[in-house]
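Re: [help] complex structure
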Amino acid sequence: MVQKTLQQRLETLADAAKYDASCASSGTAKKNSLGGKGIGSTEGMGICHAYAPDGRCISLLKILLTNHCIFDCHYCINRKSSNVERARFTPQEVVDLTLNFYRRNYIEGLFLSSGIVKSANHTMEQLVEVARILREEHDFRGYIHLKTIPEADAEIIHQAGLYADRVSINVELPTRAGLTRLAPDKDENQIEGAMGRTKTRIIEAKDERKRFRHAPRFAPAGQSTQMIVGADDANDTAIISKASRLYGAFGLRRVYYSAFSPIPDASAVLPLKRPPLLREHRLYQSDWLMRFYGFAPGEVADATEADGNLPLDIDPKLAWALKFRESFPVDVNRAAKEQLLRVPGLGTTAVGRILAARRHRTLRLDDVARLTASIAKVRPFICALDWRPTLLTDRADLRRLLAPRVEQLELF
Amino acid sequence: MTAMQNVSLGAHYAVHLPAPDDFAFWRERARGLIQCDVPPDRVSWIEPGGTGDLFASDGPSRGDKRLPSPPADAPAVRASQRFLTLARSAGLHSDPARFGLLYRVLWRLQRSPRMMEDKADPDVRRIEELAKSVRRDAHKMHAFVRFREVSEDNGTPHFVAWFEPDHHIVRAEAAFFMRRFANMRWSILTPRGSMHWDGEVMREGPPARREDAPGDDPVEDLWRSYYASIFNPARLKVGAMLSEMPRKYWKNLPEAQIIPQLIAGAQAREAVMVAAGEREERARPASLAVVAQGVAACRDCPIADCGTRAVAGEGPGQAHLMIVGEQPGDQEDIAGRPFVGPAGQLLDRYLTSAGIDRSAAYLTNAVKHFKFTWKGKHRLHQSPQAKEIDTCRWWLDAERALVRPRIVLALGASAARGVLGRTVSVSKARGAPIMLDDGAELWMTVHPSYLLRLDGAARETQATLFASDLAAVQGRMADIGA
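Output below.
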């Protein structure tokens, strides 16, 4: 067989990697290439170097080392029984590609994952080898995200964390039943065991850095995971509670949601319909509510509708506010930060501005308008010096007033 | 001596800045003017090449020579840290009124030192807006500068980029690229000036033109391939892309050249991706006759294009036993009935000796079309791929839902996958039933054609096992009264 060109293999292996949602390059230790031999820097804030027409940012070179795989997970395009074209890179080829792209300022670094070939350990060793060449031979100081394989030995995963900025293990599906049905080769206990060990290592390494300045860093950007939404019948309540458990038990930086999207050569046990992309968006919003707005998982679950799913037409914060109208209106001049954060339409930035500004003046509605993006959305839920929503908050059709308009199509 | 003694009453001052991003110069002059108590409406700040405002040419002489010198006992000028941080950024904005705004706020700060905290103040808002758009421009510069490699005479590569910033950020942001590419020779050329780093020293150069930058780099082809492949056509969101990567940047981004064709091709690519999943939404067939018609018309997998006919199952519609084979063979394709070829005849013999009545069982296959390759004049059987079995499983599920057998007997691994949806080892799973979701029992054994391929002692052993598997099924049938 004719050897495929680098370009053809890049196409195959980038195509295979696009179902991983994560592309973050932020939140790692600050480093730069001054005084080193190579290139690269990370300065806290991630940089999105390009955006694809699917609206997602391209920050890292996101590829698989190979898309051959001995596992047969139904939702995955690279499963054993799939007919996709297969290809593989050598570690050196990935290294060269990364450096060539990095020098031209196309990327922040590398996100490397792989199908499982031979054994979990062999595959993990290959992934670590790429990171080792980059870090040790080329003194590369950009961002590296390695996907780790829970079935691999703890020692190899430990090596990965020493070279990488972030490691991740995908939980794939929100429920154990879903995992058993759709990913027969994977095991929830093994995944969570590996996550737990990684968490311990991250904490230990942080502690060592406090005592010894030159103690090695271990995954300074923490660990993350990904859940596929809509491949099984788990509802939003189940997904949210799983996510909050992951944040709580394993100290994850991020839980990514990936709306199950039709994959070429799909397996026959897969559903049904593709979930609306909006569902993924609403889950991210609920994720934000838990991480930055002080919502408990149970409170987000309260915002769901009868079927346990978040409403698609309005955001979860508005949905919660409409259900718990007795908590409103909130007085912008007196209310505590926690209460202000519950007001639909007020983000963390706007709340910070309100708190700072009200030390200098008693806020009128116009003042609030200057501090927020859209006063129309906020108005029914707040009181200001010259504003009281009297009947508005109690109106039965408030939801209709606030939900984004459904656009009527023109006659053709 | 008071401040006012140095200031001519009602005079207007014009300050000419040496460079549009010279914040230190502005700070120095602004400090002196505040100490002399010159109100904001009597100062104009003029950039190189700028005309300033109407009053600037009003005075007898232009330039900052005429600025009053602050008295020795003038109080120190104070500003909050927050103001200084914002002013440094806002001073880089291309708005010609920015230094006037900064001076006005500095003036007000002397009277109300905490005014920067009042986010509802229009001047504070404006400074924040300016600083924000400068930060955004700087961020976009970090993101969208694209270097192209040029080989120099001495062999060391030189990376050159052309970029068009909105604001005066080039000098300030050069440090970012120095930290990132410390051991690389690079130049960033812009219409507002250029920066050159040789690995040790940073040099500033004059404004450049696009033609000064190299026109191409072979690695850009690889980058475009990556860009096209990482894009998921099933989730086209052009608006989200445009808000972060506005069109004004496109002309200098190598990957942006292919965006129009990616968007245009997305729907076609998605249609291909969805086609596979679409069948799932079809209604379940209501009867076995509908199944038979359906498989005849089915083109969901490539086997259907082999030119063979579909072989539907046969047997009583309410049979207690369903026997599932792999796929029709040469004879079955010709006859249009399952299990009539050599393997079917062998199966008949074993069924009879096990005491199972073939006519009372429903016989069907995991895959409904014959898959083969030509070998001379013969059609040689080819095993179906897992993907093809999974595709055809929809029909098998429909048959199972209609017939509702108590026991399913799968002959061979393909049949087992067709029933279960996953691959199991027949040699390990035979001899004991697996409970299916609908309450039926799945029993497994080898396919009779396997026996046909064996010789001698191996065939004896396997034949015995096969017979005992069928006997176990017969025993179980009797147990459950089927």
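The two ends of chain B are 118 Å apart (CA to CA).
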